[in-house]
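Postdoc handover notes: sequence design on the structure in folder B. Input tokens:
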């Protein structure tokens, strides 16, 4: 049997019979599935290496880099081929169009009362060229990955329409109108109006001209008598007939029951209006019939990677449909899925609709109180790379949750006898009741019938299947998590376990892990909730009374019936559904809190103001990296104004050089080690493709984070008296003023006293690092969640935050009254437009595109290069290694502009080194950094540079295959993004650093040939990079074992090869180098203080050293750690953090107490208190406003 396959229930009389077929034949014998002959790469673009579970999981180790160096510190080089690293292009699968009819409809066993015969027709694919293969528990009938092209395996793309239009619209196809009945001028105009863009930019004006006014069937005569409102109604009526599966939103009211506070007055029911919704079953039907559903996976599988060095097969996690949760649920459905009584002989294929929900309240305008609380639904059957692409229409708007109207308070005050004293508790209870009443309404009888018996749907491939909807996960921030879990922040704030808040600082201890996985797993306490409601509704006890709290407070439960348990049954795993939330819990939680406290510690030092100013200066001095991986930092990073999650991610990735040297020596080492481990944890947690070794490393690394955090709090934090930051004090004063104003207006408090100047006196408030928070406590849950549901980007709340963009844009074109209904109508209008576009798009792509399996060996042919530049993000551009413009508008004279007579050390050996480089390439000599290719003057004279002209370009694009078998791109610019990395010829040596680094001084090209007495070669265009080399520091060790970043520095110009030339083909990708600010600048590396091509304008010195940012993105860290499947031969290191037992000598005294003491941190500073249940509308609005600014879109590095 398959490893981890469901264990048959022998007592129930189950008999398991399995047959396995291994695909070892060409595609004709196993049609539609990957095989070794076709070498499909990531036939699933989302796979990576993993390890077979065992008692001793395999580990990987980054060896300390101690390469051999010259006397000047430059790496020694030998005549080995370093730079032209092995790289393969991701490719698509073989077409799956010849599956036998019997395979499309496999008979399912009819349920029997006593003996259940389980027959599994398992299937295993052959190993492709990346070492990837799949194992299916049930033979698949359809493989959507056969439709993928190289542009589908690309991480960077430029969709024509971010909001509504279907991306990759072929240029030779007209943009289809909403209505397919005709193409009149009015319909073309309406199509342009409803393309999802509410602000019409210059690009949209171009679209109006090219796609509407110049359309061959556009005739102004058609516009006589045109009325937009009337035309929209006609089109919507026709669209409703054309797309019957896309159901309109409906409006409804939901009832909630409110206690009276008296045994003589019965509870009252209130109808809350304003719920706009669509049936869940109608959404499932539409999604599985949508043209996009041809990319749905109906058969989950396990992904494996065969490690080339050992031949071991390790498990790969990358998508929900190759996770354990999906495989187990699909197997249950296939074997035990119930059939409706009227269709017991149904033989249709059974499959799972993997439902993934997101919801979050959002403000719709910068001014005013307009807000929307949407529930979004996405399907785990679809790849995360499609779900994450704007304009694909993968998201479905389920409902817009209404708010309690103000009239409810007036109504309650009329009958509740204790309204004045229990108002806050009652309103909080009503909001919980409303939230779950909405979900009870959505989980209607039709959905429950589909949940039990499935629904028959004709899918996009033309095959009917019985689809069983299953809720896998619900992604939400902490306030919404506790609403869903029907708990509250308090003694046990975690929605997944019952560990007390006072013990959450013990995160990482073995006893902490064993407790949260043992008896302290949280379960829904139906009996306690029922008893509590009985006391509230029948016996008239207060919601916060001692009688009720005795039942609920020990587990932080609330007296609200959970809709998911009530409708789906006690077997539904509610708390497993509430997956971790990396963006809010770590980037905006643990890291933001630590970063804030580090700023407090800087302020607490004697020269704190100068230290904070230096920190801000260092962040401002850092260069950007990638297309948008590292962006420009704000002027005052320490103030953290208007920063989103992606900004805090950048702050972490660049924190080590910034904080280095700002603390005393002992504390400095501790802070840098902690920052390194946090950057490491951040990188591994956000991997888009995990393996068993990387998951094991993450599991072992998490307790190390806990140990370092406690040590930091126990030592460094206790040496300084830290107080709240100025912006924290201002925020506290504003909140106090608002609360006082409310109490004054209610007549319960006198106005606050003020001094003679008319301002309130501000007192400094002590603040300490708080480790007793849910967000810190949740860190050990990530490895297990990834193993169950796959990588964190599958269920990241970042996706839900990004979906708010559309409703905010649509709000701007509403009348601002009853905006929910208007947004709902416009959403439906966009969905119909996208469906229409998708139909035409897939007709054009009805045949799988042929993508070459071998890299083109001559990418510089004029015709091919022209195609590359016509579309720098298109499929042709993705196939080549790099891209440099053909422009020759900036010619320079070889002997005038690069003459050594000017005294520029960068040009001292420019001409002879260039001749050596060109000659070595013309003679096809292996690259060695040109250190050993020294030719005689007579040989150099054989090099002919046409017209003695060198042409300069501005940009240099490098395409590369990522660790997760996708295509990505770096852009280098000699004036802004100048650093590159190439493979080191010494990488095979133990302890050697895997890469060389260089600063690009110029991106050059010339027409060259070789002329001898007897022969002349044909002139060719040759591209080359003029570079300044960097070398590593002798004696300095770095890597995961030491917890230190690599350090590099420029080679002094006393080395004749401090400058040289590089074939662009040898560049692996751009390098992220950050100055070691602590060491400062020096002018000793270049024997000049004048202007030089080796420095940026107005610079007269160089940074003495640079940190290598190995955590700048996930692909980069895997290049240093090793094990990236897409890297093939980049096995440069191993994971080394060792699993440790609890240190019996580690003291935790003072950590818990200091975290909660009134002198150090207020209750409102903790995450759970700040994100508490919604005591009032204003409190909810305040929290949402804070989250809105914090969770502004991150761009995944």
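Designed sequence:
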């Amino acid at each position: 049997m398959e490893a981890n396959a469901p264990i048959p229930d022998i007592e129930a009389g189950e008999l398991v019979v399995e047959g396995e077929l291994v695909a070892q034949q060409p595609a004709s014998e196993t049609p539609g599935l990957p095989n070794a002959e076709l070498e499909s790469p990531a036939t699933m673009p989302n796979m990576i290496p993993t390890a077979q579970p065992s008692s001793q999981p395999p580990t990987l180790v980054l060896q300390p880099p101690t390469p051999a160096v010259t006397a000047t510190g430059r790496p020694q080089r030998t005549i080995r081929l370093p730079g032209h690293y092995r790289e393969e292009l991701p490719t698509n699968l073989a077409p799956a169009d010849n599956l036998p009819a019997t395979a499309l409809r496999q008979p399912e066993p009819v349920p029997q009362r006593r003996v259940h015969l389980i027959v599994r027709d398992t299937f295993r694919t052959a190993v492709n060229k990346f070492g990837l293969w799949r194992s299916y528990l049930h033979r698949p009938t359809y493989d959507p990955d056969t439709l993928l092209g190289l542009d589908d395996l690309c991480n960077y793309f430029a969709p024509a329409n971010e909001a509504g239009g279907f991306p990759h619209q072929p240029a030779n196809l007209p943009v289809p109108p909403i209505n397919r009945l005709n193409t009149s001028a009015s319909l073309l105009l309406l199509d342009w109006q409803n393309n999802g863009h509410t602000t019409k930019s210059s690009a949209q004006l171009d679209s109006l001209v090219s796609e509407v006014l110049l359309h061959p069937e556009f005739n102004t005569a058609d516009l006589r008598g045109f009325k937009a409102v009337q035309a929209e109604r006609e089109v919507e009526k026709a669209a409703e007939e054309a797309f019957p599966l896309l159901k309109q939103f409906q409006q409804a009211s939901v009832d909630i029951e409110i206690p009276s506070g008296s045994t003589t007055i019965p509870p009252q029911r209130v109808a809350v209006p304003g719920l706009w919704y669509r049936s869940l079953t109608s959404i499932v039907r539409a999604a599985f019939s949508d043209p996009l559903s041809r990319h749905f996976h109906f058969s989950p599988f396990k992904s494996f990677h065969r490690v080339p060095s050992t031949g071991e097969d390790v498990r790969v996690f990358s998508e929900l449909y190759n996770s354990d949760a999906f495989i187990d649920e699909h197997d249950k459905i296939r074997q035990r899925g119930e059939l409706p009584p009227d269709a017991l002989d149904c033989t249709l294929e059974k499959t799972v609709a993997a439902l993934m929900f997101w919801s979050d309240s959002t403000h719709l305008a910068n001014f005013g109180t307009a807000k929307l609380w949407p529930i979004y639904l996405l399907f785990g059957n679809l790849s995360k790379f499609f779900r994450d692409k704007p304009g694909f229409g993968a998201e479905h708007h389920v409902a817009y949750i209404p708010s309690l109207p103000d009239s409810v308070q007036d109504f309650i005050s009329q009958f509740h006898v204790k309204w004045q004293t229990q108002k806050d508790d009652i309103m909080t209870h009503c909001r919980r009741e409303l939230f779950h009443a909405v979900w009870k309404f959505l989980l209607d009888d039709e959905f429950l019938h589909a949940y039990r018996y499935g629904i028959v749907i004709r899918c996009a491939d033309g095959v009917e299947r019985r689809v069983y909807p299953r809720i896998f996960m619900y992604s939400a921030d902490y306030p919404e998590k506790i609403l869903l879990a029907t708990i509250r922040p308090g003694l046990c704030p975690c929605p997944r376990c019952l560990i007390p808040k006072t013990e959450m600082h013990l995160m990482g201890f073995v006893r902490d892990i064993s407790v949260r996985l043992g008896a302290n797993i949280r379960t829904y306490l139906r009996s306690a909730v029922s008893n509590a409601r009985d006391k509230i509704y029948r016996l008239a006890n207060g919601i916060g009374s001692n009688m009720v709290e005795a039942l609920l407070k020990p587990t932080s439960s609330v007296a609200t019936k959970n809709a998911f348990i009530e409708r789906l049954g006690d077997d539904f795993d509610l708390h497993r559904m509430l997956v971790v939330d990396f963006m809010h819990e770590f980037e905006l939680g643990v890291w933001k809190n630590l970063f804030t406290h580090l700023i407090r510690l800087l302020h607490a030092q004697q020269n704190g103001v100068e230290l904070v100013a230096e920190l801000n200066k260092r962040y401002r001095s850092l260069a950007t990296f990638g297309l948008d991986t590292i962006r420009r930092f704000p002027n005052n990073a320490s103030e953290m104004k208007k920063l989103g999650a992606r900004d805090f991610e950048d702050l972490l990735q660049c924190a080590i050089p910034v904080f280095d040297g700002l603390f005393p020596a002992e504390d400095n080492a501790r802070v840098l080690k902690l920052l390194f481990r946090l950057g490491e944890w951040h990188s591994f947690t956000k991997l888009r493709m995990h393996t068993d070794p990387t998951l094991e490393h993450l599991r072992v690394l998490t307790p190390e984070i806990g140990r370092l955090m406690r040590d930091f709090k126990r030592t460094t934090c206790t040496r300084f008296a830290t107080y709240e930051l100025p912006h924290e004090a201002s925020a506290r004063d504003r909140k106090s003023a608002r609360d006082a104003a409310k109490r004054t207006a209610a007549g319960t408090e006198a106005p606050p006293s003020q001094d003679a100047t008319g301002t309130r006196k501000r007192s400094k408030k002590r603040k300490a690092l708080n480790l007793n928070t849910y967000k810190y406590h949740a860190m050990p849950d990530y490895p297990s969640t990834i193993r169950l549901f796959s990588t964190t980007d599958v269920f990241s709340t970042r996706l839900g935050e990004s979906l708010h963009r559309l409703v905010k844009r649509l709000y701007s074109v509403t009348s601002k009254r009853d905006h929910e209904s208007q947004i709902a109508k416009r959403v439906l209008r966009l969905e119909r437009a996208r469906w229409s576009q998708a139909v035409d798009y897939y007709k054009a792509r009805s045949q799988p595109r042929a993508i070459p399996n071998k890299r083109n060996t001559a990418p510089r042919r004029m015709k091919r290069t022209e195609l590359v530049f016509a579309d720098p993000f298109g499929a042709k551009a993705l196939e080549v290694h790099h891209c440099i413009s053909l422009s020759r508008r900036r010619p320079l004279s070889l002997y005038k502009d690069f003459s050594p007579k000017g005294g520029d050390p960068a040009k001292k050996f420019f001409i002879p080194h260039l001749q050596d480089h060109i000659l070595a390439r013309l003679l096809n000599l292996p690259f060695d950094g040109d250190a050993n290719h020294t030719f005689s003057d007579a040989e150099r004279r054989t090099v002919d540079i046409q017209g003695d002209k060198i042409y300069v370009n501005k940009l240099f694009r490098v395409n590369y295959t990522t660790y997760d078998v996708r295509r990505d791109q770096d852009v280098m610019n000699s004036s802004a993004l100048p650093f590159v990395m190439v493979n080191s010829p010494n990488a095979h040596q133990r302890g050697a650093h895997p890469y060389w680094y260089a600063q690009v001084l110029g991106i050059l090209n010339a027409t060259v040939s070789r002329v001898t007495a007897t022969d002349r070669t044909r002139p060719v265009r040759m591209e080359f990079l003029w570079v300044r080399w960097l070398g590593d520091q002798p004696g300095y060790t770095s890597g995961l074992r030491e917890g230190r970043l690599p350090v590099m520095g420029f080679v002094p110009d006393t080395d004749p090869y401090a400058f040289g030339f590089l074939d662009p083909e040898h560049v692996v990708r751009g390098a992220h180098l950050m100055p070691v600010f602590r060491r400062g600048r020096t002018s000793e590396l270049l024997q000049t203080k004048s202007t030089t091509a080796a420095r940026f304008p107005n610079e007269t010195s160089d940074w003495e050293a640079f940190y290598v940012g190995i955590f700048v993105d996930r692909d980069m860290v895997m290049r240093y750690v090793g094990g990236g499947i897409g890297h093939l031969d980049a096995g440069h290191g191993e994971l080394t953090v060792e699993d440790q037992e609890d240190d019996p000598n580690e003291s935790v005294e003072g950590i818990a107490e200091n975290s909660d003491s009134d002198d150090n941190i207020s209750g409102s500073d903790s995450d759970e208190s700040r994100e508490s249940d919604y005591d009032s509308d204003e409190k909810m609005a305040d929290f949402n406003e804070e989250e809105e600014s914090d969770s502004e879109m991150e761009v995944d590095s």
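Context for whoever picks this up: The longest strand covers residues 995-1010. Don't rerun without checking with the PI first.
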